[in-house]
Amino acid sequence: MMISMAGFYEILSTMVPLYLAMLLAFASVKWWRMFSDEQCSGINKFVANFAAPLLSFKIIYSNDPYKMNHKLILADTMQKLLILFALMLWVKLTKRGSFDWMITLFSMSTLPNTVILGIPLLRAMYGEESEQILFQIVVLQFVVWYPFLLFLYELREAKGAVGRRVSTAVINGSTVVLEVEARSETRMSSLSLATVDGQGSTTAMNGSVVLVVEASAKENSLGYLNGEEGTANSKEREVQVEAAPPQMRMINLLILVWSKVIKNPNTYSSILGLVWGLISFRFNIRMPKIVDKSVTILSVTGLGLSMFSLGLFMASQPNLMPCGKRNATIAMFVRFSFSVVVMSMCSILLGLQGNLLKVAIVQAALPQGVITFVFAEEYKAHEDILSTAVCFGTLISLPITLAYYFLLSVFHA
Amino acid sequence: MMISMAGFYEILSTMVPLYLAMLLAFASVKWWRMFSDEQCSGINKFVANFAAPLLSFKIIYSNDPYKMNHKLILADTMQKLLILFALMLWVKLTKRGSFDWMITLFSMSTLPNTVILGIPLLRAMYGEESEQILFQIVVLQFVVWYPFLLFLYELREAKGAVGRRVSTAVINGSTVVLEVEARSETRMSSLSLATVDGQGSTTAMNGSVVLVVEASAKENSLGYLNGEEGTANSKEREVQVEAAPPQMRMINLLILVWSKVIKNPNTYSSILGLVWGLISFRFNIRMPKIVDKSVTILSVTGLGLSMFSLGLFMASQPNLMPCGKRNATIAMFVRFSFSVVVMSMCSILLGLQGNLLKVAIVQAALPQGVITFVFAEEYKAHEDILSTAVCFGTLISLPITLAYYFLLSVFHA
């Protein structure tokens, strides 16, 4: 069965605008020098905190959660667990396997850019119903899989801390030396330092830093350090080190993950959207028009601005393939091939059919989700590879995704 | 004839989201300190250069220019010319009248926020057809009246220059003294200094400054100064002063206005939109879907982001009424009453009727257009009053516009 020219034009006229928005941003920074780094970060902040979460919120609450397809959810979960299991085996049994690579490969094989690129592209390919399919995958992504990825990164930090000592922290320009017993290992796991530009000289700066100090295996202590400063000099400092029992270790890890997850507006918006969807479709209560429009006025900015923001990000990178050709090849293979093969297997195994099967497969071949790069950069773990997966991957994805689309339409004939 | 509750709710559910977007921006700066000044300016730049012009472009090319209503265009033009004439008389005949006040009052009585607040509000009040009506006013605004306002400001600069001497200019940190004959008056009218953050020390900085030197009345000279610098020190400087004949004076003024107008993306987008509209509706050629969607992906961000940007602007002002109560009262009177009375007179005189009449009147009662503040600030002319007209005016406008809406519906009964 051949694809009609009209169908092909429909897909192009959905994707070209998205890529043009990205190109415009890239050009405005690289060629026209319209935006400084700080100005770019203003736009990115708006996207990360308002536009993108409101877009997810809108998509999730607009779709009926009682029409969730259990087979799809199972297939999606099975794909991720299978890959995780395979990677864990690889780490255990081979010399080349490492925990760092396990996380990176897991991230690259399971977390595509579903909201921004996936929904418009698959709607153009398979019609309105594909939104209903994808929103389920989006909910799982934000509520389960991104938090899980954070958990893996935090676990890596905890593992990595053994054999390392970080006993100094720079707070508001002053170096603070944290005294730790020789046998214990120190790790700074969360640094949230509020930098507030004071408007007058009476204005106080508040910085609070939480240092998690982990003993090698025996004990666990949590150090809180609150720094309160005037314009230039430290006024008050307080260090509390609380000893915690060993079994608290995993709990502390989970608390850290949780504290990061709840800071992510995408998690809020997904959970809120799902809760409202459950109420709304159960009791047939529609979102009041005034609320719906209030969400929509900023959520409609999400699509164009997310692509614009992605273009700004590309312009900020030294090049589109900072990790080198070898790693780029691995990244592209994992993203566009391995991921799809596993998803196809799981979907067929669970009996997905028709458009549901096609959507499930093609969404697995989307370029890498931008959030995975944000995490990798935060934890300094293969951030060059994730940058390549996002930038280079997004650039080359269109023909690849189209190839899968054609392939599926031929097979289905 | 009473307004239905449904109609009233329709209006509220259009306006509340716009104001919420504005409030969100205000809160994110004033209360949550999410965005620095520089980050705000990044968002504002995106709005001024991409979102707002694309929104105007989309609105203008989507409406049939052959259905322009000549009576409406005449009424709109007559309102502006009448007000201009009255203000000129006031300047000539009274002691209190001044050229500065003339420009400010003209700006405040003729240039409302038509695209962002006008179109959604009036569509909620009078249905889809009001967009077709307003787009005509938008075209005139951007192609005729904003350039004319710029012309007035430039004329004011030229007048103000008599009796003043500005003979120094700071270029890339160095002060340049421009030698002028004692009898001539100097004015710096356009300063376009490219500040490019060099990425390496070999990188060159290019700054070019155009200084217009005007002789008192007899002669006119144009000074070009090109500064080219290394990282810190000036390498090369060149000053060319060309003498120009006296009759060139007005031409130079017009060139200055033109050079500013063509830098304004709203002018481009309006003219391009009108040209495409003329071709498209004449020959029945539709914009290719791929182009239309490319425009739309960013133009849809225009509404929400413009309001967001307005909220950022409000947060950046020392207070919402920086010009004091007396001037604020004048501003509100001119914007919400004088403007409307003159527009009503002109519209009735020219025989406008029905919804066309109502739309023409209510649009004159919209809050002040943001661009007028940008001009006032650029020329340092009553910028505090224009800031009040925009900020305070936008905040109080909703009940006022609604009052006119109710009044008109009662009269029409």
Task: Give a description of the structure.
2 copies of one chain form a homodimer. The first copy, chain A, has helices at residues 5-30, 37-61, 70-93, 99-110, 114-126, 129-161, 248-261, 265-283, 289-299, 301-316, 325-349, 354-364, 370-378, 383-411, and strands at residues 168-171, 174-177, 185-190, 205-214, 220-229, 234-244. Chain A is of the alpha+beta class and 413 residues long. In chain A, the strands form 2 sheets. A 4-stranded antiparallel sheet of chain A has the order 3-4-5-6. In chain A, strands 1-2 form a two-stranded antiparallel ribbon. In chain A, a hairpin with a 2-residue loop joins strand 1 and strand 2 (174-177). In chain A, helix 1 runs antiparallel to helix 5, helix 3 packs across helix 11 (325-349) and helix 4 packs across helix 11. Chain A is globular. Residues 162-182, 184-201 and 203-244 of chain A have low confidence and may be disordered. The A-B interface holds A 9, 12-14, 16-18, 20-21, 24, 28, 33-36, 38-43, 45-46, 49-50, 196-197, 289-290, 293-294, 296-298, 300-301, 303-305, 307-308 and B 9, 12-14, 16-18, 20-21, 24, 28, 33-36, 38-43, 45-46, 49-50, 196-197, 289-290, 293-294, 296-298, 300-301, 303-305, 307-308.
Instruction: Tell me the fraction of residues in β-strands of chain A, as a range.
Output: 5-15%
Task: Summarize the biggest pleated sheet of chain A.
Answer: 4 strands, antiparallel
Total helical segments of chain A: 14
The number of strands of chain A is 6
Question: Globular, elongated, flat, extended or rod-shaped: what is the shape of chain A?
Answer: globular
* Element pattern of chain A in H and E: HHHHHHEEEEEEHHHHHHHH
Determine the mean pLDDT of chain A.
Answer: 79
Q: How far is it from the N-terminal to the C-terminal residue of chain A, by CA?
A: 5 Å
Strand order of the largest sheet of chain A: 3-4-5-6
Helix content of chain A: 55-70%
Regions of chain A with pLDDT < 50 over 5+ consecutive residues? 162-182, 184-201, 203-244
Q: What structural class do you assign from the helix and strand content of chain A?
A: alpha+beta
As an assembly, this protein is: homodimer
The value of Rg of chain A in angstroms is 23 Å
Biggest interface found: A-B, 41 and 41 residues
